[in-house]
Amino acid sequence: MIWNEAMECMRREDLRKLQGIRLKKVVERVYHNCEPYRKRMQEAGISPADINSIDDIVKLPFTSKKDLRDYYPFGLLSSPMSEIVRLHASSGTTGKPIVVGYTRNDLNIWNEVGARCFSAYGLGKNDVVQISYGYGLFTGGLGAHNAVETIGGTVIPMSSGNTEKQIMLMHDFGAVGLACTPSYALFLADAMKESGISREEFKLKVGIFGAEPWTEAMRRELQEKLGIKAYDIYGLTEIIGPGVGHECEYQDGTHLCEDHFFPEIIDPETGESLPEGSQGELVFTTLTKDGMPLIRFRTRDLTNLNYEQCACGRTSVRMGRILGRSDDMLIIRGVNVFPSQVESVICEMPELEPHYMLYVDRINNLDTFEVHVEVKEEFYSDEMSKMIDLRKRIAHRLQSVLGIGPDIKLVEPRSIERSQGKAKRVIDKRKFN
Ligand code: DLL
User: Fold this and answer.
1) Which residues of 161-181 are buried (b: 16+ CB within 10 A; e: fewer)?
2) CB 351 within 8 A of CB 285
């Protein structure tokens, strides 16, 4: 179902006009209400008068994660605190978190885009949806929660953790939708199997998965294990939270809510805009937010954009799978490696569970790279030769995909730690040397 046909199916020429009008307004807002933005624009020699269409966006300076840290906690707000009704934060790996303030209007926008997502997954007022994203400063729980309420569905505000209860309530309350990270969904899939309740006794049909990179291979795995359709939901705290983009019934790219969040793809090295279809760093400008609008915010997420119209009727651009954040990229013996590439290979091999860890270290000035992966119960064997053969095949596949051959360690089923939120799949000890 399409929640807001006028906006989601707007002719692209009209959309660009609307984006231009909104851009001018938001640039005026930050220029007049937020000192760091005004200063930066003055330094670049531009003023709101120079912004007259969406094409002018390239004249504006970028905003980075560092800016959000430098102006912690409230330095980038464009509304007075009296207008801010909610705060969210995303925890960085080190130091202070990134804080975002929302006005009432911002929360309404969030509900609107969230409703578009959940409608696109085919959910509506008759559906019960279990929200197993964490609640709190993380935007996942409350964001998905309000989206489901907006479409009139019934929310089970579970949050993450307490797996047995997750399974019991999912069953007893007849949840049709499950919203959580793909890694937690895997964990819950195993727990459902172990619960002794047969799959047919659950009503689950739709998975709403995001907050971390996941691959097509992982989608197949989850769809099969849970007997559902698994859809992507994308978002980031700085921009609004879950709801920046969503898949539709065709599962062929993540539609971005472009009337609110204008996307660009740039070369992460030079900052230059890249031609349509190129892979690069995703940049967003919030076109309608009041509390903390961001201009040309560099997400560090690597992806590509497809402007061809989708069969669903929406005209909005579709984002490809996120390869990872540029900061997730490992450089091992000079070769660029994304954990998602390893995931694709592992999920394609029938003998392996989709649970894996990457260990990187530097010993005697040489990078070491180990992949630990669980072998399925039925393939786990005492026969040495079988296991050696399997290791060889995995190493060979990884070598051809990555251009570098890791050491493979096959581990017993259930021996790799499960995640209840965003999975941590890399331990890079070189950082601590
Ligand atoms: O993860 C918001 C969210 C919550 C999205 C629930 C979807 C569902 P942050 O904690 O600020 O916000 O992390 C944002 O997570 O820049 C991406 O690197 C990654 N990410 C989010 N969604 C996806 C996705 C939330 N669908 C960062 N696919 C983003 C791949 C994703 N990566």
Assistant:
1) eebeebbebbbeebbbbbbbb
2) no
Rg for the chain (alpha carbons), in Å?
22
1-324 and 330-432 have identical folds? no
For tokens 């509900």, name the residue.
111
User: Which ligand 1 atom is at minimum distance from the Cα of 300?
Assistant: 16
Q: Which atom of ligand 1 is nearest to the CA of 328?
A: 18
Containing 189, the helix (H) or strand (E) segment is helix 182-194
Evaluated on CA atoms 329, 333, 335, 339, the torsion sign reads: negative
The per-residue pLDDT string of the chain (433 residues; one tens digit each, 9 = 90 and over) reads 999 999 999 999 999 999 999 999 999 999 999 999 999 999 999 999 999 999 999 999 999 999 999 999 999 999 999 999 999 999 765 678 999 999 999 999 999 999 999 999 999 999 999 999 999 999 999 999 999 999 999 999 999 999 999 999 999 999 999 999 999 999 999 999 999 999 999 999 999 999 999 999 999 999 999 999 999 999 999 999 999 999 999 999 999 999 999 999 999 999 999 999 999 999 999 999 999 999 999 999 999 999 999 999 999 999 999 998 888 899 999 999 999 999 999 999 999 999 999 999 999 989 999 999 999 999 988 888 999 999 999 999 999 999 999 999 999 999 999 999 999 999 999 965 5
Cα 212 to ligand 1 centre (Å): 5
- Which contiguous run of DSSP H or E holds residue 177? strand 177-180
- Ligand 1 contact via 262 beta carbon (within 6 Å): no
Pocket test for ligand 1, best of 219, 297, 322 (most atoms within 8 A of CB): 322
CATH match of 330-432 with 3.30.300.30? yes
Please provide residue 252's backbone torsions phi and psi, each rounded to the nearest 5 degrees. Answer: -130, 60
* Domain chopping of the chain, boundaries: 1-324, 330-432
1-324: which CATH topology? Rossmann fold (3.40.50)
